[in-house]
Amino acid sequence: MKIVCVGRNYAAHVEELENKPSEHPVLFIKPDTSVLQKKQPFFIPHFTNDIHYEVEVMVKIDRIGKYIESEFAPKYYSKVGLGIDFTARSLQNDLKAKGLPWEIAKAFDGSALIGDWFDKKQFYDINNLSFSLEKNSTIVQEGNTSQMLWKIDELISYSSQFFTLKIGDVLFTGTPPGVGSVVEEDVLKGFIESQEAFSIKIK
User: What is the 3-state secondary structure (H, E, C) of the chain?
Assistant: First the structure.
């Protein structure tokens, strides 16, 4: 099981982090060891105090696929959900400035929160899903999949050119603006179309 993550998929977030727009989706991988176990808190890792939340809509792959055409992509997933891509921001910025890979800032143990899964059929339009993140009962991120630069089916098609997608793989589709830091005792709650998808405490 792997997690394929997409960066720079919301224009406002690209501006927020002062990144340059990309011609194609920016992809990176999180290993299965990055998955935060259910009902466990997120522990700030020993190597940094600068952890940021990035809430993202996810899809779970349920068929093996390679070189998937966008028009056939809907056949490869039946569940959507909400998760957090935890990021060691200052470490990532330092590595990027040096032109180095930044997996250790994105793919460390426990860096992928995977919330509850929902049948996509219960939503009217996958490309018009509202979602949000609350920190200590205050909304800090809000987005809608209609704001994506590349839609979910396009992302599945593009990533399958490079990685064979397998049953159980998860696609994180990018984060909207509003990312920020966490400290101990913070509580994060995610909502997709007003349904709670997760609640987690920071330790």
Answer: CCEEEEECCEHHHHHHCCCCCCCCCEEEEECHHHECCCCCCECCCCCCCCEEECEEEEEEECCCECCCCHHHHHHHEEEEEEEEECEEHHHHHHHHHCCCCCHHHHCCCCCEEEEEEEEHHHCCCHHHCEEEEEECCEEEEEEEHHHECCCHHHHHHHHCCCCCECCCCEEECCCCCCCEECCCCCEEEEEECCEEEEEEEEC
